[in-house]
Specification:
Elements (H helix, E strand, L loop, with lengths): L3 H14 L5 H11 L5 H26 L10
Length: 74
């Protein structure tokens, strides 16, 4: 039985360990987490995860682009 909670925990851990990870790398990782016989029924998780990660990447780019209100100033 495929455990979606374990999938989500694993993805969050991957994101922490790979702060510069790409969408392609995360796609490969997610696809490897889902057993082949259960992939079709659970492929929506990959799509959902990639949408979530695209949002994270977009937020990071926005934060790097000059929105630094929380930086310490000397």
């Amino acid at each position: 039985m495929f455990d979606t909670n374990n999938f989500k925990r694993s993805v969050k851990e991957w994101v922490k360990l790979n702060p510069k990870g790409t969408l392609e790398e995360l796609t490969d990782y997610c696809e490897d987490l889902i057993p082949a016989p259960q992939f079709q029924a659970n492929s929506w998780l990959v799509d959902q995860t990639l949408g979530w990660y695209e949002h994270i990447l977009s937020s990071r780019r926005h934060d790097m682009g000059g929105d630094h209100e929380f930086e310490a100033h000397d």
